[in-house]
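User: Hi! I have a protein structure encoded as tokens and I'd like to know what sequence might fold into it. I'm fairly new to this, so please keep things simple.
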């Protein structure tokens, strides 16, 4: 509930603070005194666009602040989703600077207008005379029928299953699109894969083939050099090994004459042995190098094919070609696996749809069972509030499965017993919509969690008994909900739990609006003036007293 509204520097309001009661709050006052200005200020903290022209004093900012006591379960999801701290009370503040810049806050944390609008929809239901009211919206109409049907558990179970159904539908669409695209590429990918499978490259094969090609291509040069080295080491007229052996023996002969000679002799012996081993290795290599023309042709052919594939795929080595081969294989395998996944998802979707159809049928039957009693009760209330010729009809047509079943629900309205019913949002006037909304909400108030209800001159165009009945309905509605109502009707004002009077006064040559909570005697006087003018008669005062005391 809204328990405090603070307004500073807005329109003709310099500074104002109103503490509202929990049940039926009635606001009265002379025309032009500023009653609707209060709602204009309130609409700013509900997320309406700000207009700098509303500043009372153009040199300072405008501040509107509302303090709400809340049901935690009702607003906790919003605070969690927006990562805001939930305090009780919830303080919503809107500021408009002298330069026209607007800022919004929830519990002193800056928020944007969409967040403000989302939260305010949970806290306040504002109905102004010429608004397109919620009653004309399909979602609200369905919620009304569902509240009367009392099938919350079934509706929640259906909603969870429909979420699963929608997810499966999305997955199936995505997989079908993926398969279509994959099928377009499949033939070409298979051609590319077959090329790579046919050549059957092994790891690092191209690099190994290139090394072997280099060897065979220079076989004669390699063999000639190795022959020469081996010959000079072992088979020349004076082989190097023989010369080294002789030099080592000469050094060894001097070992007894100088202490540093033996180490030199040992080193020369080691060199002799190393060169002898080297000669053996050269001989082995030489024996292993043979030019093979047939093998060279095979190498050239295989490398030519490999180079062609490398150029085709824009890569430089064996590893890259093998990676492309594996990727193509994975894509083709994926197409085959995708068919299996699509068939499995189609089976799940069909099973889910079958259950949804059954639950949707149950929902539809329970909704249809409520339509006639609901129509009768609303039409009776419409007669009470001064619309005896008005009729409401609930039209339920079957459609496709959707988040709340398969029913398309439309409230149809005929204001003049013409039997020409049309959608409420198209055929009902602002005043008719307001009273219709009052009738509907009074019926479902015990079933639907309604926020603070604010009505701006809902009683326009009625008087007498009809106005009295509006007051009775409003009083009943306010038993479980906070209701704030701007009215000109004494019958409605007499039902108030808290009666506020809006007035204008001249202060420092400026007209300012004020609001005060009336005492019991002040209420009687105010209502008497509404009945009989500025100088009420004793009869008007007695009549007013009777209205207040009822």
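Assistant: Happy to help. Inverse folding works backwards from shape to sequence: for each of the 550 positions I chose a residue that suits the local structure. Here it is:
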């Amino acid at each position: 509930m809204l328990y405090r509204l603070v307004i500073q520097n807005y329109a003709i309001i310099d500074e104002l603070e109103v503490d509202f009661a929990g049940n039926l709050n009635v606001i009265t006052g002379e025309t032009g005194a500023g009653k609707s200005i209060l709602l204009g200020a309130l609409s700013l903290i509900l997320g309406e666009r700000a207009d700098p022209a509303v500043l009372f004093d153009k040199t300072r900012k405008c501040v509107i602040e509302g303090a709400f006591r809340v049901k935690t379960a009702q607003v906790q999801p919003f605070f969690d989703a927006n990562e805001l701290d939930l305090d009780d009370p919830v303080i919503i503040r809107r500021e408009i600077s002298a330069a026209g810049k607007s800022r919004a806050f929830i519990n002193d944390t800056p928020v944007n207008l969409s967040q403000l609008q989302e939260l305010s929809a949970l806290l306040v239901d504002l109905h102004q005379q010429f608004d397109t009211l919620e009653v004309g919206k399909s979602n609200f109409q369905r919620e009304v029928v569902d509240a009367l049907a009392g099938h919350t558990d079934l509706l929640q179970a259906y909603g969870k299953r429909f979420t699963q159904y929608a997810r499966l539908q999305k997955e199936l669409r995505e997989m079908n699109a993926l398969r279509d695209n994959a099928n377009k590429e499949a033939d070409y990918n298979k051609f590319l894969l077959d090329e790579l499978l046919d050549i059957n490259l092994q790891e690092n094969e191209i690099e190994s083939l290139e090394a072997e090609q280099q060897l065979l291509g220079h076989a004669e040069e390699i063999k000639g050099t190795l022959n020469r080295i081996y010959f000079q080491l072992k088979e020349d007229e004076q082989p190097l090994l023989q010369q080294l052996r002789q030099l080592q023996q000469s050094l060894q002969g001097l070992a007894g004459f100088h202490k540093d000679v033996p180490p030199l002799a040992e080193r020369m012996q080691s060199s002799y042995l190393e060169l002898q081993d080297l000669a053996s290795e050269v001989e082995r290599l030489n024996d292993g190098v043979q030019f093979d023309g047939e093998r060279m042709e095979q190498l050239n052919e295989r490398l030519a094919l490999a180079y062609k594939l490398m150029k085709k795929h824009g890569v430089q080595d064996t590893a890259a070609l093998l990676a492309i081969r594996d990727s193509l294989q994975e894509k083709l395998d994926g197409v085959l696996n995708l068919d299996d996944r699509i068939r499995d998802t189609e089976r799940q979707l069909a099973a889910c749809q079958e259950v949804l159809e059954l639950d949707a049928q149950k929902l539809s039957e329970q909704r249809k069972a409520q339509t006639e009693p609901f129509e009768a009760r609303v039409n009776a209330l419409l007669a009470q509030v001064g619309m005896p010729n008005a009729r409401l009809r609930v039209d339920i047509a079957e459609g496709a499965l959707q988040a709340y079943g398969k029913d398309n629900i439309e409230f149809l309205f005929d204001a003049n017993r013409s039997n020409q019913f049309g959608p409420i949002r198209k055929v009902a006037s602002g005043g008719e919509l307001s009273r219709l909304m009052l009738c509907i909400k009074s019926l479902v108030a015990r079933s639907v969690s309604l926020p603070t209800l604010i009505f701006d001159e809902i009683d326009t165009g009625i008087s007498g008994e009809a106005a009295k009945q509006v007051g009775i309905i409003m009083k009943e509605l306010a038993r479980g909900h906070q209701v704030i109502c701007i009215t000109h009707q004494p019958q409605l004002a007499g039902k108030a739990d808290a009666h506020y009077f809006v007035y204008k006064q001249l202060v420092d040559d400026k007209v300012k609006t004020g609001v005060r909570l009336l005492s019991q005697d002040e209420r009687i006087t105010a209502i008497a003036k509404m009945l009989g003018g500025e100088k009420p008669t004793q009869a008007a005062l007695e009549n007013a007293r009777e209205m207040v005391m009822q």
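A useful reference point when you look it over: Residues 1-129+457-518 form a domain with the Rossmann fold fold (CATH 3.40.50.300). Feel free to ask if any position seems puzzling.
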